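Lecture 7, part B: from sequences to assemblies.

Below are the input chains for today's worked example.
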Amino acid sequence: MKTLAAQALIAIALLLVLCPLAILGHRLKAIHALVYGAATLISIHLAGLGVMGLLDGDAIGSAGVTLPIGLPWLRAHFRFDALSALFLVVVNLGTTAASLYGIGYGGHLAHPNRVTPIYPLFLAGLNLTLLADDAFVFLIGWEFMSVSSWLLVLADHEKPENREAATTYLVMAVLGSFCLLGAFGVLAMNGEDYSFAAMRGAVLDTVEVTLLVGLVLIGAGSKAGVVPLHAWLPLAHPAAPSHVSALMSGVMTKVALYGLVRILFDLNRQADWEWGALLMLLGAATAVLGILYALMQTDIKRILAYSTVENVGVVLLGLGLALAFRASNEPALAALALAAGFYHVLNHAAMKTLLFLGAGAVAATTAERNIERLGGLIRLMPVTAVTFLIGSAAISALPPLNGFVSEWLILQTLFKAPSLPMWTMKFGAPVAGALLALSAALAAACFVRAFGIVFLGRARSPATLDARDPDPWMRAALILTAGLCLLLGILPVTVTSMLSDVSQSLIGVDLSESIIQGWPWLAPVSAARGSYSGTVVVASGLLMILVTAIVIKGFGTRKIRRAPAWDCGHVEDNPATQYTASSLAQPLRRVFGTSLFAAREQVEMPMPDEIAPARLSVRVIDPVWQGLYAPAIRAVDWLANRINRLQSLTVRRHLLLMFLTLMVMLVLAAIRRMLT
Amino acid sequence: MSAVWQILQALLCVALAPLLTGIVRWVKARLVGRRGASPIQPYRDLIRLLRKELVLAQDASWLFRAAPYLVFSLTWLAAAMVPAFTTNLLLIPAADLITLVALLGAARFFLALAGLDVGTSFGGIGTSREMMIASLAEPAMLMIVFTLSLLAGTTAPARIVDHVLAGGIGLEVSMGMALIALILVAIAENGRIPIDNPATHLELTMVHEAMVLEYSGRHLALIEAASMVRLLLYVSLLACIFAPWGISQSGKGEIGILIGLASYGAKIALGAVALGVFETAIAKMRVFRYADFLGGALLLAVLATIVLYVSEAV
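Predicted structure of the full complex, as structure tokens:
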């Protein structure tokens, strides 16, 4: 039997083959369904390999696969370990749902032939990054992922805002890869070569560790959408076709986090607790800012993209805690924090994929992404509404769904952080906890708003009147991911026992003593410290609903009369009198936005004798864009203008430049030789 | 035995909740010089609502009809998990304080959605304000849990009771701050004065009432009952964390249970009177002052955790 790594590589090769097939068959009408169908099967296979790896540690095998391609002195190394297995599951659960959705959706896009051939390449890039065992393969996979998703963002390039989003994305992606390249360079400088095995042996001094963590934070953080490097994300993710948005938000950000974990927890384990504290606070800030941004948006896909920023922050908080605990010799707590972060990774992949696919179904049938023009879809799109509701409740961290379990675990670990001796952690943990709790509460508000405005109430524009549920393939994808959100919430202990191997491989301690008090009790630190059981909560909750219903039905009258809404007596037929998304968010905008986003409301009231509409305009300024991106863009423009002059030099001057460069390099080399 | 006590506690929650609300109303009426309705009036109100025909808005979806059942059951479930007279309850290990907060959050989530379902402007205004209040009250509540977990080393309410009864927590400044913060949160979460007025029907000041404006008949009965159970829950929570004396611990036998029940009754009555006096003495706040009130609660709770280290270090 072939090793899991070899099987996974064959699956990735098959994905690569799908691309030319899609191009060759672009005239066939069925090609889209065929390609997405094949991608679905391959994704299921890859997810299955991941689950096998997680369930059976022996199946992984320590031997990697080396292929004679790539750099001649390095060749291409692949390896399949517990961490890759976990992320293979995360990634391929998302791609399974998105590909299934694509069977119905892919052929009906405005330009399907711009999407279908690139899509398998994107999947291949995502998977390749996870299997890489040297920096070269890792970066190839990473770039595959970036460039193919960039092309997918450009699928609808007729719209100028999409072109702009794609350009911003490309610039940030290049910056990210550049920093990751630097990070690997730092590791390789002290190891033998660019293979991960060699990098694990490298011992870095303090300056190099600082450089490494800084570069990884920028490189992986920009891809994941950590504030303040997030600004490209809410532009680029919504611009792609919905099933690709789902993958970019639900899955690609997770691969970025994988890069962070791989480097900081596996290749190099020297990062000190200060970095953990930084990550923790950065994560908390990202979570709150992300969800506050989401509350100010009216584009459904942009709301979801900003909510991704929030959830990446939550995961980052967990990872930061794990770093701090690891550096302070608390391996059991570090393993727990890491597992909590991974649990949230898994959960967010499921729920964000679900929500984006649901938003895609709404946008496809109504041709409308602005929630101010939607409404009342719960009656017209029952399946989409129920699944979107499950996703909304899950991402708002409501029990018994999956989002709650991971946030609960992260909070429980965070509550242990003050036991560390460092004052920064003692004071930082309550602050991070308050921010995390705030972000969870704001997420509930955000998704009450998103679901309530889109699916409840009355139709706000005629576009929504003949909305219909999507076709069976897309419905299947929605039901699959919604079921996953339920399962991951109801069976938390099953999930954590699968995560045990991963923390064993990264921290050296498994979760058995700290987390598993026997099914179904999830008791992270000890039974006396506080425990949770999704299974019991669901069972007793259902019992209580049943008792309530029986008592009410048996005791009261069953008479029902349908009548116009009461609304304190002044009912208005015009749907425009309903609360809008902007008015719903107004109190929160006043409380949080006035100082943070410089949100200002301006009322233009016409004079009594004037015939003019009254107008209320709201202005929200993104401080990150104003403070960081706009100056950066100006600086790049200025520099580019200066460098432009070099292009029109004479041949003689070009040669002079080359000569000078050579001289400088030689001098540098001479200095280095003298020093060593 | 824990199963029997659990069922008794669940029944007690539903049975006592209307009485608590009734006593609060009666105390308030007495304090302003009215004779006031009898404390058992809420029972009569609920039964009357149950028997009434249900008038459903034409645009109401299934969510609107399911929400009352969900809201009531989730609140009831949360209330059944707070040790009222004994810590020997079946569901104790299934949920800690964080879960409790989240269960109430889930109930609020569905109620807020129900407020938007019919598509009226009052429903929207209620939902909008409720979510603003929740987004400040919930973090404050979690920070109180944080403080308690640092003081008692656990987030499980039953274990906190054990810890306090064993004398594990002395006279702590943090505990006092957590108590004040929890009272502020309880006032906000239950829509009491000065945040919301449970007796108001003045459009511009309604929060909770605006959200449930479209409900009638048995649905309204469920929602009213849920609010009553939630009030009871917060009173029980305050009692079990800050005044756990009398609560029976496991292995204390039936006598312990009887003492627990008696002391629980006394605490509830005390809580009702205190709430009535407080509400009479204070005026309602403007909507946009809520942020100051709840931000204060949040800050107090964060400070409570930090003061803990400062007091340790000194």
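Note for the exam: The beta strands of chain B are 54-57. Keep this in mind when comparing with the next example.
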